[in-house]
Amino acid sequence: MINIKYFARLSEALNVKSEEVEFSEQINTVESLIQSLVGRGEPWISEFSTENKILVAVNQELSN
């Protein structure tokens, strides 16, 4: 299970503070997780666009 916590702008724009997503063969990297979230449509597409800088931490370590 992947535990996602959203902060500040993302939390407000998406109207969610946290959620859990099932870890799978399709969702096994940060990039594939983001693509899965973007697949939900708006506002996910806008918020995760390359124009917005998003910091991601995996096990409390910043990831790129």
Short description:
With 64 residues, this protein is of the alpha+beta class. The protein has helices spanning 8-14, 30-38, 44-47; strands at residues 2-5, 18-21, 56-58, 61-63.
Description:
The chain is α+β, with helices and mostly antiparallel strands and 64 residues long. The protein has one domain (2-63): Roll (Ubiquitin-like (UB roll)), CATH 3.10.20. Helices cover 31% and strands 22% of the residues. A hairpin with a 2-residue loop joins β3 and β4. The longest helix is centred in the middle third of the chain and has 9 residues, at 30-38. The model has no long low-confidence stretch (mean pLDDT 92).
What are the key terms here?
64 residues; alpha+beta; Ubiquitin-like (UB roll); two-stranded antiparallel ribbon; 3 helices; 31% helix
Q: Helices and strands, in N-to-C order? A: EHEHHEE
Q: Major beta sheet, specifics? A: 2 strands, antiparallel
What is the beta-strand fraction? 15-25%
What Rg is obtained from the alpha carbons, in whole angstroms? Answer: 11 Å
Could you name the CATH class?
Alpha Beta
Total helical segments: 3
Architecture in CATH?
Answer: Roll
Could you say which overall geometry the principal axes of the C-alpha atoms support? globular
Topology of this structure?
Blueprint (H helix, E strand, L loop, with lengths): L1 E4 L2 H7 L3 E4 L8 H9 L5 H4 L8 E3 L2 E3 L1
Antiparallel strand pairs: 1-2, 3-4
